[in-house]
Design a protein that fits this description.
The structure holds two protein chains of two kinds. Chain A is α+β, with helices and mostly antiparallel strands. Chain A folds into three domains: 213 residues, YVTN repeat-like/Quinoprotein amine dehydrogenase (Methylamine Dehydrogenase, Chain H), CATH 2.130.10; 137 residues, Methylamine Dehydrogenase, Chain H; 305 residues, MetI-like (MetI-like fold). In chain A, a hairpin with a 5-residue loop joins strand 21 and strand 22. In chain A, helix 6 packs across helix 12 and helix 16 crosses helix 17. Chain B contains 16 helices and 13 strands. In chain B, the strands form three sheets. In chain B, strands 6, 7, 8, 9, 10 and 11 form a six-stranded antiparallel beta sheet that branches. A five-stranded antiparallel beta sheet of chain B has the order 4-3-2-1-5. Chain B has a two-stranded antiparallel sheet with strand order 12-13. In chain B, helix 2 packs across helix 16 and helix 12 runs antiparallel to helix 13. The radius of gyration of chain B is 31 Å and the shape is flat. The two termini of chain B are 46 Å apart. Classes of the chains: A alpha+beta, B alpha+beta. Chains A and B meet through helix 2, helix 4, helix 5, helix 6 and helix 7 of A and helix 2, strand 2, helix 3, helix 8 and helix 9 of B.
Chain lengths: 756, 554
């Protein structure tokens, strides 16, 4: 038995060395692994932040256009109207000689020509662009309605070919409207049951022809049945352009380049004329005149381009007396040169304007901004041909070749203004903060004001904190400082257990139990909030008047147990006398008293319910941190103060609370963070109405509830989707700041007491 | 010694009492809430007596009323007068009762509010039945006769015994049918879908030849043959099950024929004694836990929701534990205490404070659309355009919730690690163990209770969280469980049901809130009970642990 290495350690030296190596390697691997694991926490929080940001950033990217192709064949100057089809492959051009040409959007070369009329076309009007219905006004005073259609076919290699064609939904024959005079301007609207055509003759007379649409059961098609043809009262000036609103009610005549005359077609002939609105202001800037006029998508707003590069939006607004008048809503400015063309987008409330100096501008009315202004030529812009998706456009300047541009303008309706400021939406009588993200109709103006949601979030958090702060901080003060230790070990876990309570249950109780309860016993609940503290004080005073031998039976620090019957009694008293109070003070119905006498609206699921339920959810958070902070204040401070003769309360207010105040502050911060982000309670306990009103008896909608309601329906990468991500980011950043502040303060406090 | 009132105020006693009041109010609210849920949730299954009486309103005609008391309230008389109810002048408040009359198919109403005093001749006849049906809710009335194939049976005075026997038989048949439909035919459909996907995958690769086609056709034929087999059995079972029906008389005297196949349960609460009621209570509670929901979730059980919650929580635990523990170990054992750990602690605290809905948004965007979409493109091109992982589902829900609960595990584990005395580690290192060996063999085993605490708290949090799940994978009614007999058995891409969402959905989105309310309370009670017991367990473990290491530390 030698004293060899093997005998001493049970293995040869070489294998021991190998084992040591393996162990060392294992240790290294573990260190690396654990470090990576630890850092992955930081990584994940960064990932959340940057991913939210990544989804939001496209909202902030300004619009841009890129040159895609130059057209070999220019769009003829006789072209009266041109537009592209869905895939941006083919454009249609209606020429003055009665020829309709389909051309390649990339080369401009003709693909197909069709002679739809043998006479000259003077004017062309289109209905909502997505309907692809065009009206042609002729020199003989008649109108023809044509529709351009595209059919895609695929060959075996899945290559698409688009076949354009012209159809005549109301027959190939022209509709005669004016005798012996050509049509100078034309407007028409093809509704579900009615077709209205308005024309301007060369004698400055306006005619209106209305048809009823009758279904033909034999051919399954629709036939027109003439209702009436009327001549409108003679316009007050020379008419340049006529425009008909999509509800077929308002007829706008742009006259003498300076005014708009409004007709209400639902009235009788003699009272149709509503008034003349001067639309240019010639006093300040010298001579300004209207150069172009066009409808924005939806056929509600008028766009008027003027000779100084300005474009204004107008629509009918109702005043307090119910009278409607044409009002200027907002103005845009492209340049100093006269506007030559306006092309509206087909799916959004936006338009592209071109001017005489060769500038084009992309605008959006809701966002109230110019997404892009760019000079692309030296001569006047003549044609702007939009594609339905808004992703391409052909722009041609006078005497130059046309160019196909790719338009990168994903979220034009989102701007700082449209998110955070009051916006005057179409069909609204005044500017307002509105959140209404979707609707059934296609030409709906999305209303993305996050103000009502932010306000709702703040309101809910405010009422919740109003409930939670006094109860939680007061309770924590007593528990940490006055309470008997035996009682404290019971009370603290009970309240902290509530932190684990799923909020869906609190929300469910708030919505289905508390809300109806409050509604039925409103006077009782209100009196409960006022009477309980008073009753507690009375009970306390009464207790202090009791004989000493009786009082000493309850050791100090057990006061909450004494108050138990008082609080429960107060609850029973108030709820029990609710009907009585209602009868005596509010003639039997407090809700009606509120709405009729005070003018305060009352919803069943209102902010009071949210405040109580969410306050309840926040209490444990604030309580727990505050309690820890107060309890951690070193005892020698207390003893010193008491020894100097201060009463316990004085010690608390002058010594303990100032020392613990950073901790209380951080508790409130963290509680606030929780209240702001809470989803289920507000979702279930409010009506989720996005209104801006501080009224405690009305509902609200918070950012978080809004996300949970609308996110599943939002179309991926749409503006709506990104704005919901923005709300998420706002919540994230807000809670990040609040939590970090609270946490830093708490850490500081801990370090400070560590030294005491 | 009595203080003067002034001194009492000056010394601040009133404030102390007010603070004490705050504690009392908080505690009363907490316990009141728990009691409320417990009473309402547990009361639901107790067989309540059925009232038989005549309702004689001040205006309108008197009618016969049969039903179950579901609630009562006191309302001010003037409010009733406004709504057009005649009330005597000398009355200020009046008691109203909510009667559940059922029979939605006959009267259109499940519930009605009646003025208590106007119900006269109240009796509790033994022969009144509550018949729980698969459609149209409960039926209240008397069973008059039993029919088989439309012919009335001579029950020789043993009507109830015969009824019970018929019901048992039909329930057995019903189980058999749902077994065949759910398990076997479900498997056939699953197999057929798999074949379609395989075929499509080969087609996309361009290597689909005649041989493959023939193979697929053969497999399909086999499934079809199996299906026809089952179909035959099913047809005969359906024939068998729809034979029996019963004739019942409702409170209005209307006779209704109810198919026994449409009945889930029929009982006579007035004829039960206490023991029977207890037995019935237990049976009802068991079927609440084990049955599938019926009638748009407003009736029946919540088994799929429990199953979904548990499965999701298990998956989440598997994901969250290693990450949380490793992060805590890094913070406590490996990282140099300083700037980095400070940043990480802030990150952890923020992760804990970020609103849960933000996790939902992130999960939907990043996991579902970004990761899931990429996975679909790479691995499941054959099932396009319908997404596999590119849609909310079980996997994404688990990962999202794991992310949400990781701070809980980190904080708890870190606390456990910090309580292990330094001497223990030093001892191990002094004996020549590497850092990892010390960690693996000494530190981690000692901190297992702390990890358990963290995990339990994480589970409690995840089980109650709803908002993010609404975005990343929960549905109101999942046709199939995410775990079944078809390979690969665990379907991570499926959507699932969840207790918390069930509460939200049934309580707020269901067409008949009044009828479903007791069920929501019962579900809420179950959820609260589970979460509260998890939390209490965690607290107990933590306290034990503290005691244990307190002695070690000295």
């Amino acid at each position: 038995m030698g004293n060899t290495f093997e005998n001493r350690f049970g293995m040869p030296e070489s294998s021991m060395a190998r084992l040591r190596k393996i162990r060392k390697a294992k240790d290294k691997v573990a260190t690396v692994g654990v470090t990576i694991g630890g850092l992955s926490v930081v990584f994940s929080i960064c990932l959340i932040f940057f991913y939210l940001l990544y989804e939001v950033i496209p909202l902030l990217i300004p619009a841009s256009i890129h040159h895609e192709d130059s057209l070999e064949t220019a769009i003829p100057s006789t072209t009266l109207y041109s537009v592209m089809e869905e895939q941006s492959q083919i454009g249609i051009a209606v020429n003055a000689d009665g020829n309709v040409r389909f051309y390649s959007a990339h080369t401009g070369r003709a693909l197909k020509d069709e002679q739809v009329l043998t006479e000259n076309i003077i004017t062309v009007a289109s209905e909502t662009p997505s309907k692809r219905l065009i009206g042609l006004g002729t020199e003989s005073g008649s109108v023809l309605l044509i529709k351009h259609e595209y059919r895609s076919t695929y060959d075996e290699n899945s290559q698409r070919t688009i076949n354009p064609s012209i159809s005549y939904p109301y027959g190939k024959n022209t509709i005669e409207i004016v005798d012996d005079a050509s049509v100078l301007s034309l407007a028409f609207r093809d509704g579900d049951s009615e077709l209205t055509i308005a024309v301007l003759s060369e004698h400055n007379e306006v005619y209106l022809k209305r048809f009823e649409k009758v279904e033909n059961f034999l051919s399954d098609g629709v036939e027109l049945e003439e209702k009436d043809t009327v001549q409108l009262p003679i316009p007050s000036e020379k008419v340049d352009n006529i425009l008909l609103s999509s509800d077929q009610r308002w007829l706008f005549l742009v006259e003498a380049n300076k005014q708009v005359e409004v007709f209400d077609l639902t009235k009788s002939i003699n009272s149709m004329r509503i008034g003349v609105v001067p639309v240019v202001n010639n006093t300040e800037n010298g001579n300004v005149w209207i150069t172009t006029s066009e409808f924005l998508l939806g056929g509600i707003s008028l766009l008027l381009g003027d000779s100084q590069g300005g474009i204004s939006q107008w629509f009918m607004v109702r005043d307090e007396n119910g009278h409607r008048s044409l009002e200027k809503i907002r103005e845009f400015s492209l340049s100093e040169s006269p506007i030559t063309t306006l092309a509206t987008e087909h799916r959004r409330k936006g338009f592209v304007a071109g001017d005489e100096a060769g500038n084009i501008g992309l605008f959006n009315t809701t966002a109230n901004n110019a997404a892009l202004v760019q000079s692309i030529s030296t001569t006047a812009i003549q044609h702007i041909v939009m594609s339905p998706r808004g992703g391409n456009m052909i722009v041609q300047a006078k005497g130059k070749a046309g160019h196909l541009w790719e338009v990168d303008n994903e979220h034009p309706e989102v701007s700082f203004t449209s998110l955070w400021e009051e916006v005057w939406y179409e069909n609204y009588d005044e500017p307002g903060y509105v959140w209404q993200s979707s609707s059934a109709s296609n030409d709906f103006e999305p209303k993305f004001s996050v103000m009502p949601l932010t306000f709702g979030t703040m309101k809910a958090a405010f009422y919740a904190m109003l409930v939670a702060m006094p109860l939680a901080i007061g309770g924590a003060i007593f528990t940490a400082y006055f309470m008997a230790p035996a009682l404290r070990t019971k009370v603290k876990p009970t309240i902290e257990l509530m932190e684990a309570m799923p909020t869906v249950i609190l929300g469910f109780l708030a919505g289905l139990w508390l809300a109806p309860l409050i509604e039925a016993n409103l006077p009782g609940v209100v009196s409960l909030l006022m009477i309980t503290p008073v009753l507690i004080l009375f009970a306390a005073y009464f207790w202090s008047r009791l004989p000493r031998e009786f009082r000493t039976r309850v050791p100090p620090g057990w006061e909450p147990v004494l108050l138990m019957p008082v609080v429960i009694g107060a609850g029973a008293l108030c709820m029990g006398s609710s009907s009585f109070l209602e009868d005596v003070f509010f003639s039997g119905d407090m809700r009606r008293w509120l709405t009729q006498d005070l003018g305060v609206d009352f919803d069943q699921r209102n902010s009071m319910v949210v405040g109580l339920a969410m306050g309840f959810a926040v209490i444990p958070t604030i309580f727990s941190i505050t309690e820890d902070a107060i309890f951690a204040v070193p005892k020698n401070l207390t003893f010193g103060s008491l020894a100097l003769g201060a009463s316990p309360w004085q010690t608390l207010v002058r010594v303990i609370l100032p020392t613990a105040s950073p901790g209380i502050f951080s508790a409130v911060m963290i509680g606030l963070g929780r209240a702001v982000g809470e989803t289920m309670i507000v979702l279930m306990a409010t009506g989720n109405t996005p209104i801006m009103d501080m009224n405690i008896f009305e509902g609200l909608r918070t950012l978080s509830a809004n996300i949970s309601v609308e996110m599943p329906e939002a179309e991926v990468t749409s503006s709506h989707y990104r704005i919901l991500f923005l709300s998420g980011l706002v919540l994230f950043v807000f809670t990040f700041i609040v939590n970090t502040t609270g946490e830093t303060v708490r850490q500081r406090l801990r370090e400070k007491y560590g030294s005491l | 010694m009595k203080q003067s009132t002034k001194a009492w105020f000056r010394q601040g006693d009133p404030w102390i009492w007010l603070n004490a009041g705050a504690v009392t109010i908080s505690v009363v609210m907490v316990t009141g809430l728990l009691l409320l849920i417990a009473v309402r949730g547990m009361g639901h299954f107790w067989p309540h007596a059925i009232v038989d009486g005549t309702y004689i309103p001040k205006q309108g005609e008197a009618y016969h009323i049969v039903g179950e008391m579901a609630g009562e309230e006191w309302v001010s008389a003037s409010r009733l007068r406004e709504s057009g109810v005649e009330v005597a002048d000398n009355i200020d408040v009046i008691q109203r009762v909510l009667i559940k009359t059922g029979n939605r198919d006959i009267s259109g109403l499940d519930f009605r509010w009646l003025i208590a005093d106007e119900i006269k001749n109240i009796t509790y006849p033994d022969e009144l039945f509550i018949i729980e049906r698969r459609e149209w809710g409960s039926y209240y009335g008397i069973v008059k006769a039993i029919k088989e194939n439309g012919i009335e049976l001579n029950t020789k005075g043993e009507l109830y015994a015969v009824l019970q026997q018929r019901m048992d038989r039909v329930l057995e048949l019903h189980d058999e049918i749902s077994d065949i439909e759910g398990k076997y035919i479900g498997a056939i459909n699953y197999g057929l879908e798999k074949i379609r996907l395989k075929e499509r995958a080969l087609e996309l690769k361009g290597s689909l030849d005649a041989q493959d086609l023939a193979r697929f056709q053969a497999e399909r034929d086999e499934f079809d043959a199996q299906y026809n087999n089952y179909k035959e059995t099913l047809d005969s079972l359906y024939n068998e099950i729809s034979k029996d029906s019963l004739i019942a008389v409702s409170m209005g005297g209307i006779e209704t024929e109810i198919k026994i196949s449409n009945i889930v349960n029929a009982y006579r609460p007035n004829a039960m004694n206490v023991l029977e009621k207890v037995m019935f209570y237990i049976a009802q509670f068991y079927s609440f836990l084990s049955d599938d929901p019926r009638e748009a979730n407003t009736e029946g059980g919540i088994f799929p929701a429990i199953f979904g919650t548990v499965l999701m929580v298990i998956l989440m635990s598997i994901i969250v534990t290693p990450f949380g523990v490793v992060a805590a170990v890094y913070l406590r054992e490996y990282a140099k205490q300083g700037w980095t750990t400070k940043v990480i602690r802030i990150a952890v605290n923020n992760l804990a404070g970020v609103p849960s809905i933000v996790y939902g948004v992130f999960g939907l965007g990043f996991f579902v659309y970004f990761l899931g979409g990429s996975i679909d493109e790479l691995f499941y091109p054959e099932s396009a355009p319908s997404p596999v992982f590119g849609t909310p589902g079980l996997l994404w829900s688990s990962i999202t919730l794991a992310l949400l609960t990781v701070p809980v595990v980190i904080v708890a584990t870190e606390e456990g690690l910090s309580r292990i005395p330094k001497a223990v580690r030093e001892g191990s290192l002094a004996l020549g163990a590497t850092k990892f060996e010390t960690l693996w063999n000494v530190v981690l085993p000692m901190s297992t209770p702390a990890m358990m605490t963290g995990l339990i708290l994480a589970i409690a949090r995840a089980a109650g969280e709803v908002a993010p799940l609404m975005l990343v994978g929960v549905v109101k009614l999942a046709p199939t469980l995410p775990l079944d007999g078809n390979a690969p058995f665990l379907h991570l891409d499926r959507k699932f049901m969840h207790l918390g969402f069930h509460i939200y959905d049934v309580g707020f989105q269901s067409p008949n809130v009044e009828a479903s309310r007791p069920l929501v309370y019962a579900t809420a009670f179950l959820l609260v009970a589970v979460i509260a017991s998890l939390n209490i367990t965690a607290v107990i473990i933590r306290n034990r642990l503290r005691e244990k290491y307190r002695s070690l530390g000295t």
